[in-house]
Design goal:
Layout: H1 2-10, E1 17-22, H2 28-38, E2 42-47, H3 53-63
Parallel strand pairs: 1-2
Length: 82
C-alpha cells in the first residue's frame, strides 16, 4: 500500500484504499488496521466469516467516499509458505 500511495502522491491524484479482511487466516486484518492508524486514506472492514467475493466487493465499495473505484482483489489461491 505504501507503494500505491507513493504513486498516487507522485501524480498529485487524490485517492484512498479500502481493505476488506474477509476472515483471512493470515495477518491481513492487523496489517491493514495498522496502516489505517497511520494514514487516514486507508479504510478497513472486517468480516467475521468469509462471505465470498461479491459481499467483499460490496463492503469495499461501501467504504469509499468518492465516486470512482478501482477494484483489485488480493486473493491468494495458494499457500503463502510456498
Amino acid at each position: 500500500m505504501r507503494k500505491l500511495f507513493y504513486l498516487i502522491d507522485g501524480r498529485r491524484v487524490s485517492g484512498e484504499v479500502g481493505v476488506v479482511d474477509d476472515c483471512s487466516a493470515d495477518k491481513t486484518g492487523a496489517i491493514a488496521d495498522d496502516l489505517a492508524r497511520q494514514d487516514e486514506r486507508v479504510q478497513v472492514a472486517h468480516h467475521r466469516v468469509n462471505q465470498g467475493k461479491t459481499v467483499a466487493l460490496k463492503t469495499g465499495f461501501a467504504l469509499t467516499r468518492r465516486g470512482e473505484v478501482l477494484e483489485s482483489l488480493a486473493i491468494l489461491t495458494f499457500s503463502a509458505s510456498r
